[in-house]
Amino acid sequence: MRGLGKDLRTGLIAIVAMTLVLGLAYPLVVTGISQVLFPGAADGSKVSFAGRVVGSRLIGQEFKGKAYFHSRPSATGYSGDATFFANVGPNSKEGREEVRENLAAYLKLNKPYDKGLTKDDVPVDAVTNSASGVDPQISEANARIQARRVAAVRGLSLDDVEALVDGAVEGRGLGVFGEPGVNVLELNIALEEASPLKGGN
Amino acid sequence: MAEGYVQIAVFFAVVLAVVKPMGVYMAKVFRNERVFLTPVLGPIERLTYKVLRVRPEEEGQDWKQYAKSLIVFSLLFWVLLYLILRTQGIDPWNPRGFHSAPWDVTFNTVSSFLTNTNWQYYGGEVTLSYFGQMAGLAVQNFVSAAVGIAVLVALIRGLAARSGSSLGNFWQDVTRILLYILVPISIVAALVLASQGVIQNLSGYTTIHTLAGGTQILGQGPVASQEAIKMLGTNGGGFFNVNSAFPFENPSAFTNYFELFLILLIPASLTYTYGRMIGSQRQGWAIFSAMAVLLMAGTVVAYMAEQHGTPAQHLAGLHTHAMNGSSGGNMEGKEQRFGIASSALFTAVTTATSTGAVNSAFESLTGIGGAVPFSNLGFSEVIFGGVGSGLYSMLLYAILAVFIGGLMVGRTPEYLGKKIGAREIKLVALGVLVTPLMALLSAGLASATPAGTRSLYAGFNPQGFSENLYAYLSQANNNGSAWAGYTGFLQPHGPGNVGAYGISFADMLGGLVLIGARFLPIILVLAVAGAMAGKKVSPAGLGTMRTDNPTFVFLLLGIIVLVGALTFFPAILLGPVTQGLSTRLF
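The joint structure predicted for all components is written out below.
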């Protein structure tokens, strides 16, 4: 039979010991091993262009103008350090207006380079907010539409740009899981390497 | 949609394949037998008992002693976690110099992590230091999971014991669960996640000059170590505010399924452990089947609903059908790498298992898709449920089903050969009703008072009703996911808790619900275990109602759905179902 005092004493030792082991030793050991075995991944999978770190392969960025592939809409301004959901409800009037505006903007941007483009061809990911605000990917359909514009603006052949898109496609996990997508930052880096943009557009 | 169903089927097949080996392993751990890790961890285990000054083999506890140790332990940890979070400004590993959050938000957060809920009114990356996340919250991810499993083990021992009143020793159970199950698997899982791009460092946030000439600050931190136990312990509290949608927590479709696997690994395998410990594998599979049916049904409904798109999208002129190179569907608040199928699966699995993680925005789910998390919570987290807590709640339902079945055929109800008496069924009924009662009373109170409605984001419409109901449903069921517009914390002047204040009503009510709905059922479950321990086992005869066949699974499903539906159907009708059946916008 144990008294309350004994439980209190055991409990006090237990919470201190567990905090030290589970709260400090465990994460620090995992940090140490990760930093030795997977330094790039553990530090955020950063990618470089022209010798300079330009972002993380995993974190989407904002791209404006006609010469780049654009990321999905973001409610957070593509923030990597203060994230939140857009929280647009399924029956929300604001949600309808937002999709309408995104659709119109997408068509305005891309239709001049793809005369047959209608709103029926616009894939859903192009006009809806991602969950994280920094979705690194767009759908293949979205990339193919934007490829015509990017090729025309940069003076590249459509085939060349399509080939760059193919190179940036990330397939399903183990060939089965999730959805394929195109990594926008890596695609735009490849684009810059193929045809550097001078002085903006 | 074929690719979607294939990946869901493959996933369930993998889970099914590990149920037996993992179940057998855990049974050995709970029976204090040798396992393959004993040569390495045995000395540490003995050292732990020495440090804690317990002699487990001499100190079997009856249900009251077991409960007392559990409550003392939890209470002490509540105080320690509160102190850690209140002193954030002077603690180490705080590269952004964050101050403590307001006291009421801390009250809610502490109660939330202590109860394996991980409901979050705060955004981790803008309010918490690395120290607070590691030494404060992640410790509770381990400990609250271990406590949940310990209660289950005590209940199983009570159901199986034919003599005596001992349910085991609480300190020994928690030690062995941590040492042989949670810690080793977490280490391996954290390294797998880190290899795939989940970050694991103690650096300050990095400022990047982007390709297009902008700037972007990248959050950093010890994420992989926390992510592993967040999933394995069915906790769900994100290091980042958008949880497993953020690529640094969940970088790829592979990690998404790996995290899902970690979530189901223990709750699914525990059904096998249960069968083994009571000496009838069929009993375990019967429970497993009932859980699996409900989980798969929820997954399919969510997938079909999300694939359909929303009224707002259709009325805006967007075509949400699949096309070459796009999955179609409601991609609002979802990530491209997950798509519709694995977002729907994640939604169903996390809400069924009391894991508050999300990889998509619940507030942006379709009406019917959103009804799936509501229903899963309405079934009181018995569909696999939280580690330990899911199965102990399910066993209460099983006893209830036996009782109702016994009434229908006019026999004395028995479970596992033990007669269910008046005392047991009273405890069981209370245990089944506590959670729904707390959910409905608190949600009602919050939606009817000005202090409560301050937390609403969507306003006075079905969406706002859903936010409010889900908030209390989630906290009462110790789940932790949210219709995330609902808030109890405001940060008007930017990150770091500067000028931030809490909405005391939501924080306090939520915190009290969290604690009540966790510890009242635990005490009731232990009381049931105590009442069942030492009961005589009568041999099964021709007239015995069997509890290991499809008929019983069907009866059990009926009871769960009936209790859940009778309790929550009217409320769910007013929220997500109204939205699902209407194309009106508001």
